[in-house]
Structure formats: C-alpha cells, structure tokens
Design goal:
about 210 residues; mainly alpha; 8 helices; about 70% helix
Amino acid sequence: MTSYATSSVRSDLSELRRLKSLLPPELRSWVSIEATTAVNPPLITSEEIGKDQVEVQIDLLKWEGLALDQRNLLFWHEVGRIQNDTIPRDGWEMAALAIGLGGAVGELWVQDGLLLMLALALCGVSGFRLYQRNSNEKTLKEAYEADEKAIALATRFGYTLPNAYKSLGSALKVLIDQSSSKRQRKRYESRLEALKQSAARAKSRTKPARGE
C-alpha cells in the first residue's frame, strides 16, 4: 500500500512538472501548478494567490482519465484565460454587497431614511457589478477566446493546426459526456460548436494556399 501511494505521488509530481514545461516562458516565473485539495473541485481552474501570482489547480484523479493531447489543450485553455487576464479576482463587490446589506438591515432598525437609501444604493451597484462579471454571455465569450488561445499555443508547441483542433474538440466531448450539470454541459456544447466553426474557417483559409 505504501509503495502504491509513493508511486502515485511520484506520478502526480511528474505530471505537474510536465505541465509546467508547457507554460510559455514568459509565464513560468509567476504561474504555478498544483493538485487541488478542494472537495468536488472542477477538473482545472485558476485563481490569483497574490499580487502578480496565479495558481492553476487540477483535480489529478479526473485528469488521469484524459488522453495526453486532451490534457494539453485543456491546460492551454487555462493558460489562455491567464493571458487574456480573465481570471476572476476577489474584488470589492462582495465586500460592498455585505456591507450594504448589513447597513440596510441596521438602518431599518434605527429608521434613518438617508442612510438606508445609501446602503441600498451600495447593494445595487455591487450587485450589478457581480452580475456583469458572472453573466453567462460574458463567461462564454471569454471561454471562446481562451479556446482560440489554446489552439495558438498548441501550434507554438509543435502541434499541427488540425491536430490542435481535434485534440481540444475531443476533450470537450469528454467533458460533455462526464458533466452532471445541465448548465455546465450546455457551456461545453457551446464551446464545441464555436470550435467547429473556428476550425472550418481555418480550413477555408488554407485551401487557396494549396491551390496556388
């Protein structure tokens, strides 16, 4: 049992080192890659852990079920999110919303109309900003753009364009099949459809060159 556990740890560390080598050189000093310790975590995600520091977190148990090329393209999608600066930040909105709600309840108690209006206004502004940041249309657009970055990174690391599209497409199909959330599954399906359209455009752009 101890031997198996040691072998598993070595395998995990080896995969994390391999993924580190897939980072563009300009990101390696401030992007780290770790196995997640969260309960029921997403397959792969990123978060800011300090000023100019981002950590990519991976559920290695689920990760091992993917083919190598699928892992690479999903990892580059996450790198694309980092390059596009679309990693969610713990901004002022949640704190402002909590302060506003607390203030509104307090002012109801003391019946100060002006302070109540100010507290409700703070709730409204912070709530609207949170809605904007987490809207489905915005997150999907960011996901499409990160997929395009993933394709570009794959070609930068030696993939042909058709193989890059094929690998990311097959990874998204696996995620669709494995997703237990209807909303998440629809997001993956939307990304796959956008990827197919992008692949078709890329293919049409290469046809004239072959005919010349």
